[in-house]
């Protein structure tokens, strides 16, 4: 019995009827590995690499980066590790990479993959460091770009990854245009990961840094759920066996919303490690059909609060 309790607390994620939903950790560097392992993460779904680039006057060298990537790959033998390339700009400014002009709306400025277009050398160094760090480890290394808005950006990034020897390029879905036209982007990459923090910001036109509009920054809003469906269904249709579409924004850490996301077609969930047991338990108490019913109920609502109430009414196993 003790073993059963332990495996419910740390085992692989699945719905009550056994539909697997890998549960992964969001990390910001090797120092977060201990918590990820302690809470039973099956891998890393979002490695935010910004920390390497912050508070310095020059970009980190390939060797410095390799030293920060390798321990993460080694911590998950045979497991998935999704690394996000540098997401500078907007809420993550870098001292050595100031914006090329004054940006009145930094969230709409030159951030994420857009910055790589102007500084392809920084991208090339990061991709080379990732490929070198992956060598000799058994982790399934996936590399994704943030802030992709167009198919051309997805193709450009995926080609650079493959050129560097990284065989599983992906993109984050956090700009509404990418979700709305997800089928155009899905062919270029191996997977999607939805960043609900930014996707909500851009869908509701509510800056995530401005507290006066924080009430609009709610991933339960049915407009956000609709965008999730577009991305997940495009990924599922993009190859005979379907391509993965995870969620790595804060929404994945809300047990009720995690069930709804699975019901919408999301295939893995990544979150801050302490949320993993709660999400694992909520999924384990509901069938895939109950998750789908909760998702339908949420999308039928007209507000974020209404969506949450309607979904919870379909999820009797929530604490
Ligand atoms: C997101 O936007 O949901 C995300 C996971 O990325 P970040 O919060 O780092 O922008
Ligand atoms: Mg983001």
UniProtKB/TrEMBL annotation:
Record's keyword annotation contains Iron: no
Residue positions of the active site: 248
Residues involved in phosphoenolpyruvate binding: 48, 84, 197-198, 208
Annotated GO MF terms: kinase activity; metal ion binding; phosphoenolpyruvate-protein phosphotransferase activity
Keyword terms, alphabetized: Cytoplasm, Kinase, Magnesium, Metal-binding, Phosphotransferase system, Sugar transport, Transferase, Transport
Enzymatic reactions: L-histidyl-[protein] + phosphoenolpyruvate = N(pros)-phospho-L-histidyl-[protein] + pyruvate
Annotated positions binding Mg(2+): 174, 198
Cofactor(s), by name: Mg(2+)
Positions of the PEP-utilising enzyme C-terminal domain: 12-284
EC number: 2.7.3.9
A single GO BP: phosphoenolpyruvate-dependent sugar phosphotransferase system
Gene Ontology cellular component terms for the protein in this record: cytoplasm
Localization in the cell: Cytoplasm
Enzyme category, top tier: transferase
Family of this protein: Belongs to the PEP-utilizing enzyme family.
Function: General (non sugar-specific) component of the phosphoenolpyruvate-dependent sugar phosphotransferase system (sugar PTS). This major carbohydrate active-transport system catalyzes the phosphorylation of incoming sugar substrates concomitantly with their translocation across the cell membrane. Enzyme I transfers the phosphoryl group from phosphoenolpyruvate (PEP) to the phosphoryl carrier protein (HPr).
Protein name: Phosphoenolpyruvate-protein phosphotransferase
Source organism of the structure: Microbispora oryzae
Phylogenetic placement of the source organism: Bacteria, Bacillati, Actinomycetota, Actinomycetes, Streptosporangiales
């Amino acid at each position: 019995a003790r073993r059963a309790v332990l495996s419910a607390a740390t085992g692989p994620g699945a719905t009550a009827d056994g539909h697997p939903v890998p549960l992964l950790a969001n990390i910001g560097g090797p120092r977060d590995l201990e918590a990820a392992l302690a809470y039973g993460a099956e891998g890393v779904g979002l490695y935010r690499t910004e920390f390497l680039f912050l508070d310095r006057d020059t970009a980190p060298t390939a060797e410095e980066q390799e030293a920060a990537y390798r321990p993460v790959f080694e911590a998950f033998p045979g497991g998935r590790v999704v690394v996000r390339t540098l997401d500078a700009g907007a809420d993550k400014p870098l001292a050595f990479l100031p914006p090329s002009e004054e940006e009145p709306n930094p969230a709409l400025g030159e951030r994420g993959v857009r910055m790589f277009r102007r500084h392809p050398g920084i991208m090339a160094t990061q991709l080379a460091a990732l490929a070198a760090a992956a060598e000799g480890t058994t982790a399934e290394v996936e590399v994704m770009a943030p802030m992709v808005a167009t198919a051309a950006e997805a193709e450009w990034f995926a080609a650079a990854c493959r050129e560097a020897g990284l065989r599983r390029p992906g993109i984050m879905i956090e700009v509404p245009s990418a979700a709305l036209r997800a089928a155009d982007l899905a062919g270029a990459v191996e997977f999607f990961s939805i960043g609900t923090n930014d996707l909500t910001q851009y869908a509701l036109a509510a800056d995530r840094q401005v507290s006066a509009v924080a009430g609009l920054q709610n991933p339960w809003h049915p407009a956000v759920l609709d965008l999730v469906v577009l991305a997940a269904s495009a990924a599922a249709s993009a190859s005979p066996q379907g391509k993965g579409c995870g969620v790595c924004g804060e929404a994945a850490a809300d047990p009720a919303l995690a069930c709804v996301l699975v019901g919408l077609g999301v295939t893995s969930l990544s979150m801050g490690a302490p949320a993993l047991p709660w999400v694992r338990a909520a999924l384990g108490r509901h069938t895939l059909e109950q998750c789908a019913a909760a998702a339908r109920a949420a999308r039928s609502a007209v507000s974020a609060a209404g969506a949450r109430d309607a979904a919870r009414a379909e999820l009797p196993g929530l604490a």
